[in-house]
Amino acid sequence: MRKHHEQKTRELINFVSCLKPPRPVATALLPRITIVTPSYNQGKFLERTILSVLNQGYPDLEYIIIDGGSTDGSVDIIRKYEKYLAYWTSRPDRGQSHAINEGFIRATGDYVGWQNSDDLFFPGALLRLGKAAALGRPTIVSGNLYLADAGNRIFREIQYTPVDRGMLTVVKASIPNQAAIFRRDLLEKYGMLDEDKRYCMDLDLWSRLLYAGANRIVPDAYGVYTMHGETKTALLQDVLLEERSAIVHRIRQTEPGIGPLYGLSCRLAKMAAHAKQGDLPYLFEKFTSKLIGRDDWSEH
Fold first, then answer.
1. Is CATH 1.10.10.10 the classification given to domain 2-258?
2. I want to staple 114 with a disulfide (CB 3.0 to 4.6 A). Which of 36, 54, 125, 161 is the partner?
3. What are the domain boundaries of the chain?
4. Which of 9, 45, 2 is nearest to 152 (CA)?
5. Is residue 116 a contact partner of residue 49, using CB atoms and an 8 Å limit?
6. Is 0.90 topped by the overall pTM?
7. Pairing between β-strand 180-183 and β-strand 111-114 as defined by DSSP bridges
8. Pairing of strands 154-158, 140-148
9. Contacts of 261 (CB under 8 A, 6+ apart)
10. What confidence tens digit (pLDDT) does each residue in 3-55 have?
């Protein structure tokens, strides 16, 4: 596994080292995808995020950056790539969810998603997601996730299975926004991000979009979550727990069939789905990690 991570690290670092978008795939069958990046004083990470989007070479990509009035040089970075952007702005906003919604309002894609200004798409992610979206127009198309440090060094992989609304009350790491796109018409139907949410705006959104059906997994379409001391995961744990608890309570109040054994059934269903996807090495790693107390199974 370590050698695999080292190889993927080299690939990722090379991918975001400079602007080098591959030649777009010539096809009229892929949906238009809009990606929104919200940013505020993330200049030390922002350029690599932009490169991870532009270097995808997706044939019908709309890229929007909403900056909250950064004062750290982020605007200069955005201007460097503005000819590749459908829209960008830099002015004070009401927070991350508000910024993302501002981008969604301007989006014209069949599918939309957001990539935070310190996270990345792995090479080829959007093309794989787009191809899956073209088959039957699923509600949400999502992939797996790499965890990396601030130097883009990958040290862990998280694999996912399809979820429904009820499973959101059990499976805490349900759908990674770093590797997900979803139908814009359903976003308009069920509502945009809740701007009062500071952390769990994604979980809240999934809880509404999943009324239309479970997500489709594209295992080899990776996002990259960057672990560093300034992430919201590191700084807002109390907010995370409070918001998640409220969302879970609401789902349990409205979703039928959630009884005392529901959590166990979800875990068994998730294990079966991993096995069906061929994720047996991942399952083995999860079990062994749990046995030696190195990891918490309920987190992923």
1. no
2. 36
3. 2-258, 261-294
4. 9
5. yes
6. yes
7. antiparallel
8. antiparallel
9. none
10. 889 999 999 999 999 998 777 666 678 999 999 999 999 999 999 999 999 99
